[in-house]
Amino acid sequence: MRENEHVFTIGIEEEFQIVDPETRELRSHIQECLKSEMHQSVVELGTEVCRDAGCARQQVVHLRSNLAMIAARDGLKIASSGTHPFSHWMDQLITTDERYATIVQDMQQIARANLIFGLHVHVGIPDREMAIAVMNQARYFLPHLYALSVNSPFWLGQNTGLKAYRQMIFERFPRTGIPDPFESLSEYEDYLKLLVATGCIDNAKKIWWDIRLHPFFDTLEFRICDAQSRVDDTIALAALMQAIVVKLHKLLRQNVSFRMYPRRLIDENRWRASRYGIDGKLIDFGRRCEVDERELLHEMLEFIATEMDELGNHEEMAHIEKIMREGTGADRQLAVWERTNDMKAVVDQIIAETYEGLELNEFAGQGQSLGAA
């Protein structure tokens, strides 16, 4: 395989809020239109396998546009952020589905309160043994990706003081967060077999780490990011993850290993990313000191610059730099809150950004064709 061959495909899954434009509350209604997630006010859409970021952009725009048209038929809007600023999970209906009934039965209140919205990105990597090695090393970059994606500063009508509160809700679940490194694919598979054999899980999809080797697809799945309001942010983050996988894969094929750090250290940076986004400091483990997040992000972009170029992700690289200059989704939400002191205005901002670049007229009168994941 030549290094520039596009075996590192992309698949994107986005979770959307269904919102009443009058009250700005979540609406448990969409199950009447199409398949929802565990809460009926949550819909997940997934692209097909995409060769590159350009293809992924077309599909994300198509899916968002069609979902917006379907919601509009019932007088509703769609919104994309890691949490809804003020709607309460107790007011949301649980989808009637055996899978979700099992999760609620197992997790109880933890599952019922899990009213959050994420961005999941799959990067194709056919050699699963190599994928485990790449996953081990990619863990280091998860806080960097998290900081760029923070988009959930509010929860139940309160400013949490964190740039991303979504993961604080989700990590109540077991088998979440940064995974430990695995020595081999067989060690990973033995771990899964043990959990199934002992009744901890009934299938490997109930491993919900921030990055995981997907149990059914030959992909590495990045799960740490908040749902993004803007299409541009979603695509730029996906392109960044793709380039990280390509870079680490390339180094491994050259028998060069990126240094692996233990989970306990990466967790420190994960917390800092959640609290401060791109405005804080992360630990540079090599230099054993705190470093401005933006400085480490620039180092990361330099690290994968050649791969971004090879993949043709020039626009996406420029957009990551724009996020670093102008701020994240959380920063924009907080700016509206500080200016208006009005949670409904924050919801309006999220909705407006979610609709940026959509092609709503094109989909008028078309069917309900959605690539639901």
The largest β sheet comes out as: 6 strands, antiparallel
**How many whole angstroms does the radius of gyration measure?**
20 Å
N-to-C terminal Cα separation, in Å? Answer: 30 Å
The number of helical segments is: 14
- The number of strands is 12
Class by alpha and beta content: alpha+beta
Helix proportion range? 40-55%
Large-scale geometry: globular
Mean pLDDT, to the nearest integer, reads 89
Residue fraction in strands:
5-15%
The arrangement of helices and strands along the chain is EEHEHHEHHEEHEHEEEHHEEHHHHH
User: Which stretches are poorly predicted, pLDDT < 50 over at least 5 residues?
Assistant: 363-369
Please provide a brief summary of the model.
By secondary structure, the chain is an alpha+beta fold. Helix content is 43%, strand content 14%.
For the structure shown, list the relevant keywords.
373 residues; alpha+beta; six-stranded antiparallel beta sheet; two-stranded antiparallel ribbon; 14 helices; globular
Structure notes:
This protein has 373 residues and is of the alpha+beta class. Helix content is 43%, strand content 14%. Strands 1, 2, 3, 4, 9 and 10 form a six-stranded antiparallel beta sheet that branches. A two-stranded antiparallel sheet has the order 5-6. The longest helix is centred in the middle third of the chain and has 23 residues, at 231-253. The two termini are 30 Å apart.
